[in-house]
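DM between two lab members

TW: hey, do you still have the MFS transporter entry open?
JB: yeah, one sec
JB: this one, 527 aa:
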Amino acid sequence: MLTLGFDLTILNVALPAMAAQLEASTDQLQWIVDAYIVVFAALMLPAGLLGDRFGRRRMLVAGLAVFFLGSLAGALTGTPGLVIAARSVMGLGAALVIPLGLSVLPSMFGEQERGKAVAAVTASMAAGMPLGPLVGGLLLDHYWWGSIFLINLPMAALGIAACLFLLPESRDPATPRVDPLSTAYSALGLGALVFGIIEGPGRGWTSGWVLGAFALAALLLTALTVRERHAVRPMLDLALLGRRVFLLNALAATLGTFVFSGLLFLLPTRLQETDGHDAFGTGLRLLPMMGGLLIAARAGSPLVRRLGPRPVVAAGLVVLCFAALLGSHTGPGDGYGFTALWLTIAGFGFAFAMVPAMDAALGGIDADEAGSGSGLLMTLRQVGGAVGIALLGSLVADTYAGRLDTAGLPGPAAETARESLSGAHAVAERLDLPALAASADAAYLDGMSVVLVVCGMAALATAVMAALWLPNPRPAARPDTASIAPDGAAGGAGGAAGRSGKASVPEPTPAADGSPARPGHGPGEGG
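TW: and the structure you got?
JB:
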């Protein structure tokens, strides 16, 4: 789980180096990041069901082996297309590992120990996120970009050995069967949607490829919705979206993931290419957002117990809106201090919105729906992350290409400069054109400003909806639940644990910090 936590953030600091060394365009970088998330989001639920049905240890070993092979392939490839393929394989491995990482614990530990075990596993994944940029930065300062994949190999191998020699086999034969058709609908529909968003700036939003991708996505996702709504035991219980408390809280949590994933994709390029920091320095400069998030995640629980989730979620979204609008005023001459300020505020906003929203979403449904609700919430958040990278990255690429001054450049040089910021810097250095580099930096910052305004407005609209229509039950006083990593590690993996652990462990399961959970919630579902 620590390895997978690394992998959620370690890649971002390598994007500028990959753009330069692989000559990757902005849309190829988006696919390098999104391929992992799309495959993971589409296959997480069926992969977890396979483990419940055919053996969790077996599927964990298989998932770690697939992740190992994908990481090895990623380190050894030399073209953007092959890196995208390797990242897809890694997403498949993660889809097997994350849902089962916690679901094995109820069969291994008694009620008194289970909370500590869950806390150790969820803390490992949460710790991997802020450590990812730092470790990645250290590697990139001394080795080539592929080293960020090689670090996965010894840890995945250690995980495989631990599973084989220390982990007993467990399964839940009563779990629902995997529906291959629904799995295909979700994977292909989400892939078509992301393809259309990413390819829009380059091919044109009215091109046949882009419009066809959107039409195919709409058709497949509609077919998925119809099939799942009529299934006796659906993999995704979409009927939960008809309940106001679940829908609005899921929307708030998904929006937070949307903005968080998009910023982690865009910020490293800005810090390295326009500000001139090395990879390790970039990792350090991302820590204020992580720190604000982790602190606020712990501070939010007492506020929810005192005020209820509605004011906390709405206030968190307003804070996120303020941080985004503040960040949109970043100029080429501003120092890092201003960036650190709005990143810290954004981290507070993320946590105050996401953590209570996830808890309230799962707390508002019946105990026998906790597993399906957690799986649906995790899937929506991962889809939000994939769409965030695709949509916000495309918005930056569109704005950057439109505002870059390439007057007087030869055709091929102008095209290279418009493809990516690193490409513009390479052309400027080769032709000794400092004005081109300055224009590229300004155009990229303009694109980020547009993105931040869009994020701020979306956060404000969601805050208004939450304040007006979100129910506000006052939860009974209980110890703080564990903080949730922004990738949904605790919520998502915990949801899988709750789903699969529910049949074999009927008693209430403690939360990730050892505190008693509400009846019917599996490890991490209370979040």
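TW: got it. DSSP finds 20 helices and no strands in the chain. The first helix runs from residue 2 to 9.
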